[in-house]
Amino acid sequence: MTVSGASVTPDALDGLSLPERVALLRSRMAAVPSRGETASVRIENSDPVEPVHPGPSTQRPTRQRPVLPVPSALIEVLPHGGLVRGTVASVSGAGSLLIGLVAAVTGAGGHVAVIGQPRFGILAAVEMGAQLSKLALIPDPGPDPVEVAAILLDGVDLVVLGLGGLSVSPTRARAVVARARSKGSTLLVTDGHWDGAELRLDASVHGYDGLGTGRELGRGRLRGVRLSVCARGKAMRPRTVRLDLRSENGRIEWHAEKLEQNPLSIAVST
Q: How far is 110 from 43, CA to CA, in rounded Å?
Protein backbone atom coordinates (compact mmCIF):
# COMPACT_ATOMS: atom_id res chain seq x y z
CA MET A 1 0.00 0.00 0.00
CA THR A 2 1.28 3.46 -0.87
CA VAL A 3 -0.36 6.59 0.50
CA SER A 4 1.34 9.81 -0.57
CA GLY A 5 4.81 8.67 0.36
CA ALA A 6 3.89 6.44 3.31
CA SER A 7 3.81 2.75 2.46
CA VAL A 8 2.34 -0.39 3.96
CA THR A 9 3.09 -3.60 2.08
CA PRO A 10 0.79 -6.64 2.31
CA ASP A 11 3.65 -8.49 4.07
CA ALA A 12 3.66 -5.84 6.79
CA LEU A 13 0.09 -6.84 7.71
CA ASP A 14 0.77 -10.57 7.80
CA GLY A 15 0.72 -12.10 11.26
CA LEU A 16 -0.90 -9.08 12.89
CA SER A 17 -4.12 -9.25 14.84
CA LEU A 18 -7.04 -7.07 13.75
CA PRO A 19 -6.34 -4.41 16.46
CA GLU A 20 -2.69 -4.36 15.38
CA ARG A 21 -3.68 -3.96 11.72
CA VAL A 22 -6.01 -1.11 12.65
CA ALA A 23 -3.29 0.61 14.70
CA LEU A 24 -0.79 0.31 11.85
CA LEU A 25 -3.23 1.71 9.31
CA ARG A 26 -4.16 4.57 11.63
CA SER A 27 -0.50 5.49 12.04
CA ARG A 28 -0.10 5.57 8.25
CA MET A 29 -3.26 7.63 7.88
CA ALA A 30 -1.63 10.33 10.02
CA ALA A 31 0.88 10.77 7.18
CA VAL A 32 -1.82 11.34 4.55
CA PRO A 33 -2.08 15.04 3.55
CA SER A 34 -5.40 16.82 3.58
CA ARG A 35 -7.85 15.87 0.87
CA GLY A 36 -7.30 17.16 -2.66
CA GLU A 37 -8.69 20.70 -2.81
CA THR A 38 -8.87 20.65 -6.60
CA ALA A 39 -11.67 18.09 -6.63
CA SER A 40 -13.61 19.52 -3.70
CA VAL A 41 -13.59 23.21 -4.54
CA ARG A 42 -14.20 22.88 -8.27
CA ILE A 43 -17.14 20.51 -7.92
CA GLU A 44 -18.81 21.97 -4.84
CA ASN A 45 -18.94 25.42 -6.40
CA SER A 46 -20.41 24.19 -9.69
CA ASP A 47 -23.96 24.96 -10.77
CA PRO A 48 -26.66 22.41 -9.95
CA VAL A 49 -27.09 19.71 -12.58
CA GLU A 50 -30.43 19.90 -14.38
CA PRO A 51 -32.54 16.71 -14.43
CA VAL A 52 -32.37 14.64 -17.62
CA HIS A 53 -35.54 14.64 -19.73
CA PRO A 54 -37.70 16.62 -17.24
CA GLY A 55 -41.30 15.48 -17.05
CA PRO A 56 -44.27 16.07 -14.77
CA SER A 57 -42.55 14.34 -11.85
CA THR A 58 -39.14 16.01 -12.36
CA GLN A 59 -40.00 19.71 -12.71
CA ARG A 60 -38.53 20.63 -9.32
CA PRO A 61 -34.77 21.44 -9.56
CA THR A 62 -32.40 18.94 -8.00
CA ARG A 63 -30.90 20.26 -4.76
CA GLN A 64 -27.18 20.80 -5.02
CA ARG A 65 -24.93 18.52 -2.95
CA PRO A 66 -21.12 18.36 -2.83
CA VAL A 67 -19.86 15.66 -5.17
CA LEU A 68 -16.73 13.95 -6.42
CA PRO A 69 -16.09 14.18 -10.18
CA VAL A 70 -16.93 11.40 -12.63
CA PRO A 71 -16.11 10.94 -16.33
CA SER A 72 -17.92 13.71 -18.21
CA ALA A 73 -20.01 11.23 -20.22
CA LEU A 74 -21.62 10.01 -16.96
CA ILE A 75 -22.62 13.39 -15.53
CA GLU A 76 -26.11 13.48 -17.04
CA VAL A 77 -27.22 10.12 -15.65
CA LEU A 78 -26.32 11.05 -12.05
CA PRO A 79 -28.87 13.17 -10.16
CA HIS A 80 -26.19 15.51 -8.78
CA GLY A 81 -23.64 15.22 -11.55
CA GLY A 82 -21.14 13.15 -9.58
CA LEU A 83 -20.60 10.81 -6.61
CA VAL A 84 -22.21 12.53 -3.64
CA ARG A 85 -19.86 13.05 -0.70
CA GLY A 86 -20.82 11.36 2.55
CA THR A 87 -22.71 8.52 0.88
CA VAL A 88 -22.27 4.88 -0.13
CA ALA A 89 -22.66 3.79 -3.75
CA SER A 90 -22.25 0.40 -5.39
CA VAL A 91 -20.72 -0.56 -8.74
CA SER A 92 -21.15 -3.84 -10.59
CA GLY A 93 -20.41 -5.27 -14.01
CA ALA A 94 -17.64 -4.19 -16.39
CA GLY A 95 -14.47 -3.12 -14.59
CA SER A 96 -13.90 -0.15 -16.91
CA LEU A 97 -16.56 1.81 -15.03
CA LEU A 98 -14.85 1.42 -11.66
CA ILE A 99 -11.46 2.32 -13.13
CA GLY A 100 -12.93 5.39 -14.82
CA LEU A 101 -14.45 6.63 -11.56
CA VAL A 102 -11.12 6.25 -9.74
CA ALA A 103 -9.28 8.00 -12.57
CA ALA A 104 -11.72 10.94 -12.54
CA VAL A 105 -11.31 11.58 -8.80
CA THR A 106 -7.51 11.29 -8.70
CA GLY A 107 -7.20 13.22 -11.95
CA ALA A 108 -9.02 16.14 -10.27
CA GLY A 109 -6.66 16.03 -7.27
CA GLY A 110 -8.67 13.82 -4.91
CA HIS A 111 -7.23 10.92 -2.90
CA VAL A 112 -8.54 7.39 -3.50
CA ALA A 113 -7.95 4.08 -1.68
CA VAL A 114 -8.77 0.79 -3.43
CA ILE A 115 -9.26 -2.13 -1.04
CA GLY A 116 -9.53 -5.83 -1.87
CA GLN A 117 -9.02 -5.44 -5.63
CA PRO A 118 -5.76 -7.30 -6.44
CA ARG A 119 -6.45 -7.15 -10.19
CA PHE A 120 -7.26 -3.45 -10.33
CA GLY A 121 -6.17 -2.10 -13.73
CA ILE A 122 -3.48 0.45 -12.88
CA LEU A 123 -2.37 0.88 -16.50
CA ALA A 124 -5.94 1.46 -17.66
CA ALA A 125 -6.43 3.98 -14.85
CA VAL A 126 -3.35 5.92 -15.98
CA GLU A 127 -4.62 5.88 -19.57
CA MET A 128 -7.87 7.39 -18.29
CA GLY A 129 -6.00 10.21 -16.54
CA ALA A 130 -5.40 8.87 -13.01
CA GLN A 131 -2.66 10.34 -10.84
CA LEU A 132 -0.88 7.44 -9.14
CA SER A 133 0.46 9.73 -6.40
CA LYS A 134 -3.17 10.13 -5.25
CA LEU A 135 -3.94 6.41 -5.33
CA ALA A 136 -3.50 3.87 -2.51
CA LEU A 137 -3.83 0.15 -3.28
CA ILE A 138 -4.54 -2.41 -0.54
CA PRO A 139 -4.99 -5.69 -2.43
CA ASP A 140 -5.10 -7.85 0.73
CA PRO A 141 -6.76 -6.00 3.62
CA GLY A 142 -6.99 -9.10 5.84
CA PRO A 143 -10.05 -10.71 7.44
CA ASP A 144 -12.05 -7.50 7.94
CA PRO A 145 -11.90 -5.25 4.86
CA VAL A 146 -14.93 -3.27 6.04
CA GLU A 147 -13.02 -2.09 9.12
CA VAL A 148 -10.07 -1.04 6.95
CA ALA A 149 -12.44 0.92 4.69
CA ALA A 150 -14.06 2.62 7.69
CA ILE A 151 -10.63 3.78 8.91
CA LEU A 152 -9.62 5.15 5.52
CA LEU A 153 -12.82 7.20 5.31
CA ASP A 154 -11.14 9.49 7.86
CA GLY A 155 -8.65 10.89 5.36
CA VAL A 156 -9.48 9.80 1.78
CA ASP A 157 -11.99 11.36 -0.62
CA LEU A 158 -13.08 8.06 -2.18
CA VAL A 159 -12.72 4.55 -0.75
CA VAL A 160 -13.32 1.62 -3.10
CA LEU A 161 -14.15 -1.58 -1.21
CA GLY A 162 -14.11 -4.98 -2.89
CA LEU A 163 -16.23 -7.34 -0.79
CA GLY A 164 -15.17 -10.55 -2.52
CA GLY A 165 -18.76 -11.80 -2.80
CA LEU A 166 -19.63 -11.11 0.83
CA SER A 167 -22.78 -9.43 2.15
CA VAL A 168 -22.51 -6.72 4.82
CA SER A 169 -25.16 -6.78 7.52
CA PRO A 170 -27.59 -3.82 7.62
CA THR A 171 -26.47 -2.88 11.14
CA ARG A 172 -22.84 -2.61 10.17
CA ALA A 173 -23.65 -0.94 6.87
CA ARG A 174 -25.55 1.81 8.70
CA ALA A 175 -22.58 2.41 11.01
CA VAL A 176 -20.21 2.84 8.06
CA VAL A 177 -22.68 5.09 6.23
CA ALA A 178 -22.85 7.31 9.31
CA ARG A 179 -19.05 7.48 9.38
CA ALA A 180 -18.86 8.39 5.68
CA ARG A 181 -21.47 11.11 6.22
CA SER A 182 -19.61 12.60 9.18
CA LYS A 183 -16.27 12.61 7.32
CA GLY A 184 -17.60 13.82 3.97
CA SER A 185 -16.01 10.88 2.17
CA THR A 186 -17.59 8.54 -0.36
CA LEU A 187 -17.55 4.75 -0.17
CA LEU A 188 -17.86 2.77 -3.40
CA VAL A 189 -18.54 -0.95 -2.87
CA THR A 190 -18.21 -3.71 -5.46
CA ASP A 191 -18.19 -7.51 -5.72
CA GLY A 192 -20.75 -8.02 -2.97
CA HIS A 193 -24.00 -6.84 -1.36
CA TRP A 194 -24.36 -3.63 0.62
CA ASP A 195 -27.82 -2.85 1.91
CA GLY A 196 -28.98 0.75 1.60
CA ALA A 197 -26.57 2.12 -1.02
CA GLU A 198 -27.84 5.53 -2.18
CA LEU A 199 -26.71 4.96 -5.77
CA ARG A 200 -26.20 1.77 -7.78
CA LEU A 201 -24.26 1.72 -11.04
CA ASP A 202 -24.19 -1.31 -13.31
CA ALA A 203 -22.04 -1.52 -16.44
CA SER A 204 -22.21 -4.09 -19.22
CA VAL A 205 -20.15 -4.45 -22.39
CA HIS A 206 -22.19 -4.44 -25.60
CA GLY A 207 -19.45 -4.28 -28.20
CA TYR A 208 -15.80 -3.85 -29.15
CA ASP A 209 -14.03 -1.96 -31.92
CA GLY A 210 -10.89 -3.14 -33.67
CA LEU A 211 -11.22 -6.93 -33.44
CA GLY A 212 -12.11 -7.52 -37.08
CA THR A 213 -15.14 -9.06 -38.76
CA GLY A 214 -15.95 -12.22 -40.67
CA ARG A 215 -12.96 -14.56 -40.84
CA GLU A 216 -10.85 -11.97 -39.05
CA LEU A 217 -13.23 -11.80 -36.09
CA GLY A 218 -11.28 -11.80 -32.83
CA ARG A 219 -8.06 -10.59 -34.45
CA GLY A 220 -6.47 -7.18 -34.47
CA ARG A 221 -5.82 -4.39 -31.98
CA LEU A 222 -8.60 -3.38 -29.59
CA ARG A 223 -9.39 0.28 -30.26
CA GLY A 224 -12.51 0.79 -28.20
CA VAL A 225 -15.16 -0.68 -25.90
CA ARG A 226 -18.86 0.13 -25.90
CA LEU A 227 -20.53 0.11 -22.51
CA SER A 228 -24.07 0.47 -21.24
CA VAL A 229 -24.26 2.03 -17.76
CA CYS A 230 -27.47 2.04 -15.73
CA ALA A 231 -27.83 4.29 -12.66
CA ARG A 232 -30.47 3.54 -10.03
CA GLY A 233 -31.15 5.42 -6.82
CA LYS A 234 -33.62 5.89 -4.00
CA ALA A 235 -34.79 9.30 -5.22
CA MET A 236 -34.37 9.01 -9.00
CA ARG A 237 -35.73 7.16 -11.98
CA PRO A 238 -33.36 4.59 -13.49
CA ARG A 239 -31.24 6.18 -16.20
CA THR A 240 -29.12 4.48 -18.83
CA VAL A 241 -26.34 5.86 -20.98
CA ARG A 242 -24.35 4.13 -23.72
CA LEU A 243 -20.68 4.98 -23.82
CA ASP A 244 -17.80 4.60 -26.23
CA LEU A 245 -14.39 4.22 -24.58
CA ARG A 246 -11.79 5.00 -27.24
CA SER A 247 -8.03 5.28 -27.26
CA GLU A 248 -7.16 8.78 -28.46
CA ASN A 249 -3.67 10.32 -28.37
CA GLY A 250 -2.43 7.93 -25.72
CA ARG A 251 -5.48 8.30 -23.46
CA ILE A 252 -8.79 6.51 -23.08
CA GLU A 253 -11.59 9.01 -23.62
CA TRP A 254 -15.25 8.58 -22.66
CA HIS A 255 -17.95 9.56 -25.16
CA ALA A 256 -21.71 9.40 -24.59
CA GLU A 257 -23.32 7.46 -27.43
CA LYS A 258 -26.98 7.46 -26.45
CA LEU A 259 -29.05 8.51 -23.46
CA GLU A 260 -32.32 6.85 -22.62
CA GLN A 261 -34.73 6.29 -19.78
CA ASN A 262 -36.60 3.04 -19.56
CA PRO A 263 -37.84 2.55 -15.99
CA LEU A 264 -40.18 -0.29 -16.99
CA SER A 265 -37.50 -2.52 -18.47
CA ILE A 266 -35.15 -1.81 -15.58
CA ALA A 267 -37.80 -2.70 -13.01
CA VAL A 268 -38.36 -6.05 -14.71
CA SER A 269 -34.64 -6.90 -14.62
CA THR A 270 -34.13 -6.17 -10.91
A: 11
Contact 81, 105 (CB under 8 A): no
pLDDT tens-digit series, residues 91-133: 999 999 999 999 999 999 999 999 999 999 999 999 999 999 9
DSSP secondary structure string for all residues of 62-121: PPP--EE---GGGGGGSTTSSEETT-EEEEEE-HHHHHHHHHHHHHTT--EEEES-TT--
Whether 153 contacts 85, CB under 8 Å: no
What integer pLDDT is reported at residue 107 of this predicted model? 96
- Please give the Cα distance from 38 to 51 (Å, whole number): 25
236: alpha, beta or left? (left if phi > 0; alpha if psi -120 to 50): beta
pLDDT band per the 50, 70, 90 thresholds, residue 32: low
Angle ∠(173,178,181) on CA atoms, nearest 5:
125
Which residue, 118, 122, 115, is CA-closest to 151? 115
Mean pLDDT of 134-161: 95
CA separation for the pair 259, 53 (Å, rounded):
10
**pTM for the complete prediction?**
0.73
